[in-house]
Specification:
outer membrane lipoprotein receptor (LolB), chain A, 3 helices, 11% helix
Length: 225
Amino acid sequence: MLRSTMLACSGLLMLAACERVAAVLAPDTAEVAAPVAAADSSQKFFGRETFTIVLEQTGREVGTVTMHYREWGRRSAEVTKLTNTETGKVTDTRSFTNGAASVTIDNVTGEVVVTENPYYSQAAAEASTSADDAFGPTAMARMSAEATGESATIAGERCDYWMVMGTKKCVAPWGPTLQSTMEIGDSVADRKAVEVRIGDGGPDSVFVYVPPAEAVAPGSTPTTP
């Protein structure tokens, strides 16, 4: 039995926008979903064009989160594999963005959710085209983060600690968060980079979704009259 697939489009979006997102899952002629074109903007979200970060998570949920980035962060993919130490629940998901489109695949349930951010193009157009203004300390300042004065070297990359929305983050000058620590109830959730691979944007397969082939019911094979 085919696993369920769900397409979610915000009610604020125009029908045409939803159709563009749907094309990621159901292209007319190709078997592999065609990626959505990146936003037409020179905005850079990181100071490295292509890289991968592997983070190890500890706390109530343990495992790894692998982040892949391409095109200065305009395209990204996240592979999450976590296990809840109290309930045994497994989280095994893959999500990727390409411009305004965002796709999340739950490898446990088979559910697929596609959304489109209606503000992406506007934000990209209004943002500064200066790479120096798009990430790192300037980005933290825009989020009203407070510098702690601490710094560290994690996975070979220097980073500075900031407090933002109750989370302590160690952010590299070129943009990525190499460690984030947050208190959740009586436990502490911590993600810390164990590997940073500059120039490696991950395999192409993490940036596409291939819908499963339609099942053919027994006895339903077409016959020639």
